[in-house]
Amino acid sequence: MAREKWASRLGFVLASVGSAVGLGNIWRFPFQTATNGGAAFLVVYLVAVVGIGIAALLAEFVVGRRANLNVIGAFEELGHPNWQIAGAIGLFGGFWVLSYYSVIGGWVIRYTLGSVFGGVVPWMGDPLANPVEFFGVASAGPDAVAFHAAFMVLTIGIVAFGVEGGIEKATKVMVPSIAVMLAGLAVFASTLPGAGAGYAYFLSPDLGALLGNLGNVIPAAVGQAMFSLSLGFGVMITYASYIGDDDNLGTDGLSIAFFNTLIGVLAGLVVFPLLFAQNVSPETAGPGAVFVSVPTALAELPAGSILGLVFFGVVLIAALSSAISLLEVVTSYLIDNYAISRPQAATGLGLVIFVLGIPSALDTAWLGWFDGIAVNVVLPLSLLLVVVYVGWVLAGDALDEVQRGTSGAALLGPLWLWTVRTVVLVAILGTLLLGIRKLLVNGGLIPPF
Ligand code: TRP
Predict the structure, then answer these.
(1) Is 97 part of any domain?
(2) What is the pLDDT of residues 295-351, one digit of tens each?
(3) Average model confidence (pLDDT) for the chain?
(4) Cα of 192 to ligand 1 centre, how many Å?
(5) What is the DSSP letter of 119?
(6) What percent of the chain has pLDDT over 90?
(7) What integer is the mean pLDDT of 186-200?
(8) Atom of ligand 1 nearest to the CA of 232
(9) CATH number of the domain within which 206 lies
(10) Measured in whole angstroms, how far is the alpha carbon of residue 141 from the centre of its chain?
């Protein structure tokens, strides 16, 4: 059977934006901005996105499009079978990440349903009535396992319909919905008294905070850029392997990064006015913040349940459009290599991933451990290998591939390759070392330094 393809270039871009836009944009990004110098951090982040994020994204695109094969097979197809280990690490990472990503997706289903039916169906509970208690019940235990299963079923349902019929069709609706719903919420939030204080917290450029703390701010910006663009788990290699035409990869990468950033900024314009208007402290980052602080703020508003539905609806769509990209990485590998159908592959894998996620659904400490390993080690390690491969092994062929479909960008190509070989490589290596250090410090294995 012929390998599947995106029906259109827009479809590829939207699917990639769907993968990139997730919890990382809606919670992590606004927070990183607010606590690292506001608008000044935004500038550093943009430099990191353009100088490192997009260059690394293009490295993944180059591998995927040149080989037209899954994340492991691609390296063999390009003539370097030893490098398949790079793909294998990414593939393993995607598998691992989806197991707990789906657990969080399950919480979000629970919150979305609870916002609507919480008052009517007693066992479900209303997240706005008692946010702390609701989070306790929803985040760990048998309920969390059940909703984790529900989220996995939705993910399998989309991936089973294929690249064009499932992922492309779904993300064409999902990504614009995320933008429209967030924009609507942002407009609403701007009418709240106290919104101004929220904007000030989010956006005021605090050069002092930035310059006094560059040693932390730069890794934070680079890490956020890589995480947010869904690099390192083979997603972008896999998605690019379905590109049929000689499109300009550079403009695609720019569009993806642009929309990804735009949605992060929009999310900040929703979250901070909301929190400040209700005097909810924005200091708690992490899951507790999205799942406790936001409902606490919403509970004070007259139409809180409807707003809760829209807010958690956005988070749900964003999580789902990312989850499908992770399942697709592994599904693509199976159907490229074995004589099984896409629905069989997606369902079988979904089941295994569901089981792997059960510990995370029973105990948030497990979830944190899964996440720590994935984000601090597997992501930068797999991305580092891809970048070394593209910059130093594929080299001239990579340049040739990135320039296909471009006209007149004769200088940009070599500049990109040079960046990948040097700045990008060093930045990702640094991120990996910092990530390992963080894991060891958190695990109590080495003292903080
Ligand atoms: N980019 C996603 C976000 O911002 C998170 C993420 C990182 C991701 N790597 C991924 C999602 C790989 C899907 C696939 O929330």
Answers:
(1) yes
(2) 888 988 888 889 999 999 999 999 999 999 999 999 999 999 999 999 999 999 999
(3) 92
(4) 31
(5) T
(6) 68
(7) 92
(8) 9
(9) 1.10.4160
(10) 25
Task: Identify whether 4 is part of a domain.
Answer: no
Can you give the residue range of the structural domain that contains 237? 9-442
Strands, DSSP E only, in 20-133? none
Instruction: With respect to residue 174, please indicate whether it lies within any of the assigned structural domains.
Output: yes
Domain total in the chain: 1
What is the DSSP code string of 218-252? HHHHHHHHHHHTT-SSSHHHHHHTT--S---HHHH
For 410, the 3-state DSSP assignment is coil
The whole-model pTM stands at: 0.94
- The per-residue pLDDT for range 287-296, each reduced to its tens digit, is 667 888 888 8
Q: Side chain identity at 251, as an amino acid letter? A: T
| Residue (of 244, 274, 241, 225) closest to 383 by Cα position | 225
Residue 163 in any domain: the answer is yes
Q: Mean pLDDT check: name the lowest of 37-46, 341-350, 386-395.
A: 37-46
List ligand 1's pocket residues with C-beta within 6 A: 19-20, 22-25, 227-228, 230, 233, 235, 322, 325-326
DSSP 80: -
In the DSSP assignment, the letter for residue 3 is: P
**CA 76 vs CA 80, 240, 329, 404: distances in Å:** 5, 16, 17, 21
Closest atom of ligand 1 to CA, residue 20? 1
Non-local (6+) Cβ contacts of 100 within 8 A are: 357, 360, 366, 367, 370, 371, 374
**Direct distance between the N- and C-terminal alpha carbons of the chain, in angstroms, rounded to an integer:** 55
- How far apart are alpha carbons 141 and 223 in whole angstroms? 31
For the residues 149-168, what does the mean pLDDT come to? 97
In this predicted structure, what is the pLDDT of residue 449? 55
Mutation test of ligand 1: which of 23, 45, 260, 322 has the most ligand atoms closer than 8 Å to its C-beta?
322
Residue 111 CA to residue 312 CA, distance in Å, equals 7
